[in-house]
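anyone seen this seq b4? input:
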Amino acid sequence: QMQLVESGGGLVQPGGSLRLSCAASGSIRSIYAMGWYRQAPGKQRELVAGITSGGLTNYADSVKGRFTISRDNAKGTVDLQMIGLKREDTAVYYCNVMWSRYGDYVDSWGQGTQVTVSS
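predicted toks r here
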């Protein structure tokens, strides 16, 4: 089993910063990749940033240079540091973990945390 708990969302002005955190519990040693997705009203959920157990990262073009993803494999945590926030970053942000269960890869999701960028 895998449980994810997110924290750090909130209201911030354009140009501001936020840090999202996600803590996994359960089979954290079986985690391969961790990441953050977001979903704005009326839009599909999209990948924001991902990081593998080896530290390889990838980012959506819209957040490159502004967001930084990091993880602690031993603790099963993944953070998303966001700077230079824009109104279009407003969305519900979801933590995602890909982990191995009985030889298959499984996705688990957090409950989501709201990020609102507004003046």
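The mean pLDDT is 96. The first strand starts at residue 2 and ends at 7. kinda curious what u guys think
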